[in-house]
Fold this protein.
Amino acid sequence: MKAIIKYWNKPSRCAYLFLAPSVILLMLFSVLPLAAAFGLSLFEVPITMNTVSFVGLENFTEAFHDERFLNSLKVTALFTLMEVPLQVFGALVVASFLTKNNFRNKLLRAVYFLPVICSATAVGIMWKMILHSNIGFITAVLQTIGLGRINFLNTPGLTIFVVSFISLWRSFGISAIIYVTAIQQVSASLYEAAEMDGAGKVRQFFHITAPSIRPTFWYILMTRFAGALQIFDIIYITTNGGPNYTTESTVTYIYSRAFSSASSMGYASAMSVILFVIIMAVTVLMYRKMNKED
Amino acid sequence: MSVKTEIKWKEKICEIPVLIVLLILALLVIVPVVWMTLSAFKPEKEIISWPPTFFPHVLTGQNFVDVQKRINILRYMLNSAIYAGGTTALAVIVNSMAGYAYAFYEFKGKSGLFLLTLATMMVPFQVIMVPLFLVVFKLGMYDSYWGLIIPRVVVAGSIFMMRAAFTGLPKELAEAARIDGLSEFGIFRKIMLPQVKPAIITLMILSVNGSWNDLLWPMIVTSSTEMRTLANGLALFIGQNTIEYGAAFAGALISLLPMFLLYIFGQKYFVEGMASSGLKG
Amino acid sequence: MKKRAVSILLTTAMTISLFTGCGGTEKTADASRAEGEAAAQNGGAKETQPEGENQTAPGDPVKITFWNSFTGADGDMLTDLVNRYNTENTDGITVEMDISPDFDSQLSTAFAAGTGPTMILSPSAYRFTYGDYLQNISDVFEKTSLDKADFIQSYLDYCSEGDNLYFVPFQVVGYYMYWNKDLFTAAGLDPEAPPSTWDEWADYAQKLTDESKNVYGSGISYDYAYQIAHIMQRFGGLAVTDENGSWKANFEDNDGYAEFLNMYQTLVQNGDNPLEADTDSMASAGQIGMTVGGPWVTAGLDTAGVNYGIGLIPLGDAGDMNSVEVLGFSVTTAASDVEKEAAYKFIQWWNTENAEGSSPALEWSLANGFPAYTYSVQEKDAYKASAKLSAMSAANPDAPTDFIVDSSFPGINAVIGDVIPEMINSVAFGSSSVEDALTKAQAAADKITADY
């Protein structure tokens, strides 16, 4: 018994013990279904999966000739390029002002956190109502102060920005708070030493805060990135891809192919595989960079 | 000395624009939320009206009465609490252990395993939904709390977050404890885990919040109405062709309140977490 | 080295699961079928056993599950009626209803695993997606007191494939015109004389529009394919028809469709029709002169206290029509014979009059404004007295009831979900001309018809 404990107590071995529960659950409930879904991309299969016929790479060829799929990739890329940098850097800047646990900061943190805990559905219909081109509260206010009637949700070219804003609005609070917890973990003595050296707040931020919270920065960057490339719920509720498909993200389109219209699980899977490859490629690049820094 | 006071003075000046920006952000957040809150107290007729109103002309509690009449709030809340509580309790243990291993140990296949973990968050749920359901069904967990909870415990993002939190800690802490004769698990539980308290609180809040607002999974994995969660119940006010805005907003408030209290409570612990991690120096 | 480890891990996992995953899926389907048969046999056995002893005793308690997607206010009423059945019936039947905000996800996962509810309530077009999981219930008229002759045949046709009946009609959804009488008066129009042609519609729309008040005359949403389809059909007939046994799409060179798209484009360009996805809310707020929608539009208008009228959608060149969708009860393959019989009893109760001469079906029609699917309900005084229902039932009873495509065309979802939205969006936002939009729609529809 003791020997067993001793055997596993070696740092290099006990890592596997620490990982075992998560890896087992992950294999069963994530990797296995994921692999199955990937396998399906080579088949013609309805949503209930009762009839399966092998079609090889046909679904992939179709995807690359599907205008709506290619358009959805463009929309997703645009959304990601707007949302992720603002989220990752904006939240960091905001967080750096909220680290002290005084009343003001606690209040502001609670306020910023509010949208995070609202259900996506409620947030979606709320924005849809207040930005309504005709009877929306914000639209009316902007009109009153002379900005004209802005059709936020029905203008190709504009609506994608609105959707990005709503998505940011909903989740920047949690990013900020994760940054705050990370910054709070940075040893206070580092700041004291810097203060002794006469370093200002800005220099402290770049020389102490930023390097110390690097792991958290990578965490937020990579998860937000994967999240943005899979944006679905906010779009589904507010615009459902409109107007004229200018906000139809890849997952919104995949969803409609899997369920709404001519249900084709194989085709939906094939598009997911393509999206997966894109996300994975960028993630591996970021992961390498992250490991180098660590 | 004078240099230092000058810096202090400069900082005070800098604080004003910062404060303005922070307030504008707060306003952007709070105005829609207040609009929604006030709308929950408006009659349906006023929510959809021209010209739109912000403050209610007529104050009514009818929307809350409607919600209360239509769904068994207490039963649904209990289910949500079981789902959120169960998932979170297990998630904290499993994900922080995994995050710790990725942050502190060197072992064969580390990168591969970690990337595989990350890979699981790169496929839309709608696509893996049916295969996942089949796994749960074959394991005999359909329509049970286990089926609801177990598949949702491991979240790649949470492992990543805990990894980030542990990576920030100095390795010397572990070395010192090892010399003192503490077992590896002992080091994790007694030395390391308390250091990342704020991250754990964040993980808990994220996990509770995620399950609390989760609509799809509880719906497909349970089949009896006694197993329904609050999020499912509230979705009933958003019809395919018509939306009952008043009831939907009232429901959203009812569902938001416990989460908000939990956050306020959790924030208190952020501070304590700070105090303990401040010791390490 | 590291890189290799990753790729090997990923590919092995994939290949392994590809086998287990797909094999598993097929097995599940087979296993479920076997289970279903076994259950059916058990059910049969259960029934034959007590035969000799006493047949008349109330059956063993049966619990059946019933799924549908009736979120919203009508779901509330459905819940009340199901509860009433559970307390009233003497057969020991309990109907456990589950209303789902994402019906497709719930249904597809359950069916894939070989489980599912006893009974569902859905559009009859669900037989094209879930047909393998729905039972033929044509014996419902033999096993219950329901009279087949009482059901309007064209609605039953919607629910059948050949001799097989998959749904018992539950509600008939037609689209109607609603006009705001106060806005008509304000614009100097006769509030009791809604447009009867589309030229009048366009003309009235211009008169009703009042930019200073944010009021639009015409409320046709570019994001509401069902609404567009009902209107479009008045102009140019069905989009897919049965041409000597093969499906033919009718977008290109369809003068009626071209005329509709031109009219819509003009209305939008003149500012008489808003570029807005959610026109229903505007109608409820009293900001829309005329609109087209399902009976649920009245709920919003009533709550908001709008003074409105209901009429049939103005006719176009395609002539008289009564386009509808039919929703119905159906029994899934997950149901045993005992459960199936219990479901029949519930369906029978829904359509049977009580001592006061009222039935749940009649109550449903009256409360929610859906026209009747049986002659007996149509004959009821209460039904005739309802102004809403009589306006909706004014359609020519002999007019064809197909909605946008031939009612037995399985690709209806793709036509409504993809072809029509793509067409109307490109026209509304000016990214293509009417001709190009129709050519593209034809190509897309040809691809769909080729699949069936």
Confidence is low (pLDDT under 50) at residues 275-281 of chain B. The interface with chain C takes residues 44-45, 48-50, 70, 109, 111-113, 115-116, 119, 126, 129-131, 133-134, 137-138, 142, 215-216, 219-220, 223-225, 228, 232, 235-244 of chain B (CB under 8 Å).
